[in-house]
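ok so I'm stuck.
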Amino acid sequence: MAEARIRRGGTARLSSAKGRATKGGRGRALKRRSWVDQLFEMLPVSEATLQRMASWAIVAIFGGIAIGIAIYLGVPDMARQQAAELAARAGFEVEKVEVRGVERMDELSVYNIALGQVDRSMLALDLPKVRGEMLKLGWVKDARISRRLPDTLVVDIVERDPVAVWQHGGQLHLIDVQGVVLQSVSASAMPDLPLVVGPNANLQTAGLNKLMENAPALKPMLAGATWVGNRRWDLRFQSGETLSLPEGDKDSASALVNFARMDGVNRLLGRGIVKFDMRDPDRFVLRLPQGQVEEKPTDAAASGTAGGATDSAKAPAQGEEG
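replied:
not stuck anymore, here's the structure
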């Protein structure tokens, strides 16, 4: 009986101690996990979803590292180059060039650029680079490059329109309205376009066109123009006369309109006068050839000037200061 009581008591004490230990351990475990549980409960996703997201994040991190190493080692470029070589061997290589929109320029320069690329594979061809080289050509205002598989490159060209011939430094060049040099021309093959003369005269072509719009009747008669002193125009007409205009857009336009009105009334052009000088708004000067009898200006011509005064003088046609 005594032994049995000892065993029961011992068992009871052990069980009590074990229970206390277990309860204490669970309490501590619950206490440690409480803030984590609260954090998970605040998130709008389940714990399983968070675990999957964490797994994918780890995969993405390692994948990004692998891609970065591949890029650093040039693997994508090598792959592209290999693919381009395979495509070229399969017949996808530039062999033909179709040029559209060309009327005046020499197409040979377009072919040289299109077929002169180091890598002519249809897959590896750098179209923006080809377009940039095309735009360097004087005649090309715009260009569009496209592929037509398997082996044709299509080039659509928008040409510039020549509006004048620029004479400078003893050379002649075709230019457009913006003054862009299109090509050189020889004196024996001059096109039927006005001649602009002088340093930077090509850059004033747009201003000259705008000026001549004020006198549309005179525009077809214009043979050339000289940009004098980088500040004003001397106009030369097909009948041989020169008209000196004042500086400034407004003053030169007003003088040209007055001259057009006087020419419409008195037929000033074609009468053998060498030069008309309207630089002074109060004077209208007519310069006659050497040795010619001085002709008195008409009253109508005098009244057509801004100030109403008209002078006539004998003077050489050249040598006047701008």
